[in-house]
Structures are given as structure tokens and as C-alpha cells.
Amino acid sequence: MKSQVTKGILLAGVGSMLFAFGSMVTKRNQNNEIPSSTAITMASIYGAIIIFLYAWVRDIPFVWAESPTYWGSVLYLTVLGSVVAFLCYLKLVRNVGPAMAGYATIMFPPVALFISSLFEAYQWQLLHLVGLAFVLIGNVCIIWHKKPS
Fold first, then answer.
1. What is the residue range of 127's domain?
2. For residues 68 and 5, what is the distance between their CA atoms, to the nearest angstrom?
3. CB 75 within 8 A of CB 87
4. CA distance linking residue 77 with residue 3, whole number of Å
5. Are 29 and 86 in contact (CB under 8 A)?
6. What would the DSSP string read from start to end of 55-100?
7. Residues 40 and 81 in one domain
8. How many angstroms separate the CA atoms of 73 and 85, rounded?
9. Looking at the structure, do residues 9 and 76 belong to the same domain, yes or no?
């Protein structure tokens, strides 16, 4: 159990660092006037290559379901969950900068949980509410923080 917690913490840390790195690359691309469509295309290609290599090295087979529900969800995640969401994030980085855009993304998991509560009967527990409180308090502190003069 303890090793799983350690692994989870390490993965969260690595994920956070990679996200921050991606935000900095986004800002650099915008400063160099690289079109969003080019950035999304290249990011998608790199991501697909990395996932393919990971699956190949780990000998994980690719499985294609034949159900319309499966393909509908793939289409939804591809178009809305990736391309549209990424375009919105790029716009956010352009408008408020990578640091503030990063704080906005802290709200993604709570919003997803609320949506799951509405459509998937997600059951909130005390620990979830405590986590939500920390997220909200943290965002309030960052957004309304007064810079020293």
C-alpha cells in the first residue's frame, strides 16, 4: 500500500512538471507566432508516438471495440476533449499567461466530479469534500493574492 502511495505521489509530481513544461512550450510557441493548429497537430503526433512506444515496450495490445458507444466516446474525446479543449487552453495561456492558466486547470477535476455527480451518480465522501475545499481555498488565495509593492 505504501509503495502505491509513493508511486502516486511521484506520478503526480512528474505529471505536474510535464504540464508546467508544456505550458512554457505553449507560451514560447505563441511568442514565436506558431499557429495553434500546427502546435496541436505536432503535440498530437508526439503524443501518439509516445503512447505507441509505451504500448509496444510494455506489450499492451491495441483493442478496438465495435460498439457505436465506443466510437462515439472516441469521437467526443478526440474533438471536444482534446482539440477544442486544447484550443481553449492555448487561448487562456495567450490571454492570462501560463501561470494563471495553470491555476485555472486546478478546477478541472472538481468540475468533472460535479458532472459525474449529475450524470453518473458519483457519491461524494468527506475526504472528497475536504479536497474540494483545499482546491477552492488555494485558487482564491492565488487569484486574489496582492503582489508586494
1. 106-149
2. 37
3. no
4. 32
5. no
6. HHHTTPPP-----HHHHHHHHHHHIIIIIIHHHHHHHHHHHH-HHH
7. yes
8. 15
9. yes
User: Do 33 and 7 belong together in one domain?
Assistant: yes
Dihedral sign from CA coordinates of 40, 45, 50, 54: positive
Task: Looking at the structure, tell me whether residues 9 and 73 fall in a common domain.
Answer: yes
48 and 35 assigned to the same domain: yes
- Can you give the pLDDT of all 149 residues of the chain as single tens digits? 678 889 988 998 898 888 888 888 888 888 899 888 888 888 889 989 999 999 999 999 988 888 999 899 888 888 888 888 888 888 888 888 887 887 777 888 888 889 999 988 899 999 889 989 998 898 888 777 766 55
Angle at 102 between CA 49 and CA 54, to 5 degrees: 20
Neighbours of 128 (CB within 10 A): 13
How long is the chain?
Answer: 149
With the C-alpha atoms ordered 134, 27, 36, 71, is the resulting torsion angle positive or negative? negative
